[in-house]
């Protein structure tokens, strides 16, 4: 690509197309001056379409947009039989004038470069032109040969060929005069000065620029659209619309972190310019992540996901996720300079995770890089949870080595989020604490369990599912994981006010039916999701004035061994039953055991619970409800998929 300096405006489409071709195809060390004037001795000036300062000579190029068959001779020309001007004669005359001017300015001992005329016949943008030269040496060329003629030695008409030196090029530019001023003028767009071309292709240009309104400067990017350089008007209008839409997006996203500031569009009649403040830092693909600390990596990830969230909340998506369009500053700021809004939110999150996964892996923090791995596969979309985790790790401190074993006591911080405040209860293998969510400053419950390593895979899958589901009568899981340097498991859940079912001393009329109905609705919902509690007992049912909540899914066998449902039943029958039937048995047995005196329950086995149920007045209990409970206790109830438990137990009205 040659260096082009435009002294004037092209007068027709043929010149525009010719200049674009020459600028694109000529080598980098060539200088292309367009619509330049050559001064004569008399003081008059002769305009030249193009002046090419090349490797072998200086060429005065006259551009002709002739269409048809051109017969060119030494003295006369004809186009499709009609006489036309001999443009080569004019170009040669101007070349001789230029050569004379150069000779008068060169110092002693320096040779003047060879100057010659040349005619470029364009046809219709390179087509529909035939050239017949009466002498093959005439410097008249079509688009097929013009670049070769300007760059190869055979294109010279000089008796001897010598390469043009840099000093000779400077002499030619001095002879033309004010070239530097013209170049500066061409590179000036309002208060922006173009410095370096980063991209150019058929009417689209991206320049590194400098904003210099007075005594200070700032780096910017200029996206420039030149309509006349497109192949057709439709293509030009399409790209113009895209540039205007990009401006609207950036304006709509003003104030969002990660979005560079843009100035208003500049339109001067010849070009449309979108100025965008140059992003701080370096592109992601050249960021040296090996030299960054864990804290710096986490900060980059936090700011990147914050920017993504803010963009999504404005109703837009990034879309432009190539690594050279993502900039990271020394302070960890992340900016997206190619916001296309061409993906859905889910697709955008997936693309984001793919782009930043290598940074997440470098943190060596499993909770972080596992999120990026899952999101890159489309398995998670929980951006809020990721941002909270990143903030917790940064605010509470992490180290580049494995964390130390945690001592469970007041003030201990679990998973960088939860500070233990008050001990509530414990058994031989579990503890329950009231905790404070450090970032959110709200109460939550934290349970710590030991000796559950054998059940870890099952529990991990179960609690990942629970964390994504919501039912008002099922514990709301906030976090689940393994404590560092141990085999202990922790579960953080929303704080539920109340007491376990067997610890309630004052039970008001109607409450047991309300609680039982609520828990039935919860079981029905969970069972439809193939999620089973597996340990329903009075200690795993928390009740208050308003509702009952199931807690400790999959664990809790140790919480109240004497109240666990499996002890109510025949072990052989229990082992043969399905998961749904076990949950229903545990629910019914828990309420019967809690609401009847111990002397009616016998040893607490199946027969004792059935005897306790028979102590109720069947009419008061509800005939259908009584019969269904009896079937459940006798393992005669079949929980078919999609069954409506509320109808089976005849408690639909109780839920309302």
From TrEMBL:
Domain Protein kinase: 418-656
Keywords of the record: Kinase, Serine/threonine-protein kinase, Transferase
UniProt GO MF annotations: ATP binding; protein serine/threonine kinase activity
Signal peptide as annotated in the record: none
Key word Kinase present: yes
Pfam families for the chain: NERD
Gene3D superfamilies listed in its UniProt record: Transferase(Phosphotransferase) domain 1
Species assigned in the record: Shewanella woodyi (strain ATCC 51908 / MS32)
Keyword Transferase: yes
InterPro entries according to UniProt: Kinase-like_dom_sf, NERD, Prot_kinase_dom
Domain NERD, chain residue ranges per copy: 10-121
Protein name: Serine/threonine protein kinase
């Amino acid at each position: 690509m040659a260096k082009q300096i435009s002294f004037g405006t092209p007068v027709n489409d043929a010149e525009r197309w010719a200049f674009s071709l020459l600028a694109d195809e000529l080598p980098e060390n060539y200088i292309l001056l367009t619509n330049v004037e050559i001064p004569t001795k008399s003081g008059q000036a002769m305009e030249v379409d193009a002046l090419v300062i090349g490797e072998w000579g200086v060429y005065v190029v006259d551009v002709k947009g002739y269409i048809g068959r051109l017969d060119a001779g030494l003295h006369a020309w004809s186009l499709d039989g009609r006489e036309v001007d001999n443009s080569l004669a004019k170009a040669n005359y101007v070349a001789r004038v230029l050569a004379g001017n150069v000779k008068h300015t060169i110092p002693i001992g320096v040779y003047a470069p060879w100057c010659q005329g040349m005619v470029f016949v364009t046809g219709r943008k390179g087509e529909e032109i035939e050239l017949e030269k009466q002498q093959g040496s005439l410097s008249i060329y079509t688009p097929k040969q013009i670049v070769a003629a300007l760059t190869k030695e055979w294109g010279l008409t000089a008796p001897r060929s010598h390469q043009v030196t840099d000093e000779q090029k400077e002499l030619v530019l001095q002879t033309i005069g004010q070239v530097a001023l013209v170049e500066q003028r061409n590179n000036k767009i309002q208060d922006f000065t173009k410095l370096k071309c980063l991209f150019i292709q058929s009417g689209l240009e991206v320049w590194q620029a400098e904003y210099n309104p007075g005594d200070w400067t700032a780096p910017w990017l200029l996206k420039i659209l030149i309509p006349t350089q497109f192949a057709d008007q439709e293509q030009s209008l399409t790209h113009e619309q895209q540039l205007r839409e990009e401006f609207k997006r950036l304006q709509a996203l003003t104030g969002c972190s990660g979005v560079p500031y843009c100035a208003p569009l500049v339109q001067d009649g010849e070009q449309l310019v979108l100025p965008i403040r140059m992003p701080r830092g370096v592109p992601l693909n050249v960021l040296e992540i090996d030299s960054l600390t864990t804290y710096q990596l986490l900060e980059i990830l936090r700011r990147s996901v914050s920017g993504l969230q803010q963009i999504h909340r404005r109703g837009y998506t990034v879309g432009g996720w190539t690594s050279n369009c993502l900039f990271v500053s020394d302070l960890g700021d992340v900016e997206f300079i190619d916001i296309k809004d061409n993906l859905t939110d889910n697709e955008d999150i997936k693309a984001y995770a793919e782009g930043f996964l290598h940074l997440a892996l470098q943190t060596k923090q499993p909770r972080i890089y596992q999120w990026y791995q899952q999101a890159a596969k489309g398995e998670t979309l929980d951006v809020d949870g990721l941002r909270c985790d990143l903030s917790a790790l940064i605010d509470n401190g992490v180290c580049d080595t494995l964390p130390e074993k945690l001592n469970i006591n007041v003030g201990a911080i679990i998973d960088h989020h939860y500070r233990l405040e008050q001990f509530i209860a414990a058994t031989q293998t579990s503890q329950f604490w009231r905790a404070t969510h450090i970032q959110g400053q709200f109460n939550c419950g934290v349970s710590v369990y030991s000796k559950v390593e054998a059940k870890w895979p099952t529990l991990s899958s179960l609690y990942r599912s629970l964390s994504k589901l919501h039912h008002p009568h099922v514990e709301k899981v906030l976090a689940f994981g393994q404590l560092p340097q141990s085999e202990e498991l922790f579960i953080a859940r929303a704080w539920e006010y109340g007491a376990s079912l067997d610890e309630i001393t004052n039970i008001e009329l109607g409450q047991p039916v309300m609680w039982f109905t609520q828990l039935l609705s919860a079981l029905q919902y969970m069972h439809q999701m193939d999620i089973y509690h597996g340990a329903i007992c009075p200690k795993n049912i928390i009740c208050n004035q308003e509702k009952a909540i199931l807690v400790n899914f999959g664990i809790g066998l140790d919480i109240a061994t004497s109240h666990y449902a499996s002890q109510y039943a025949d072990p052989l029958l229990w082992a043969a039953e399905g998961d749904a039937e076990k949950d229903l048995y545990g629910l019914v047995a828990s309420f019967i055991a809690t609401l009847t005196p111990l002397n009616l329950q016998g040893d607490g086995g199946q027969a004792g619970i059935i005897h306790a149920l028979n102590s109720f007045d069947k009419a008061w209990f509800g005939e259908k409800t009584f019969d269904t409970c009896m079937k459940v206790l006798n393992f005669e109830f079949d929980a078919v998929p999609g069954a409506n438990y509320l109808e089976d137990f005849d408690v639909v009205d109780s839920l309302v």
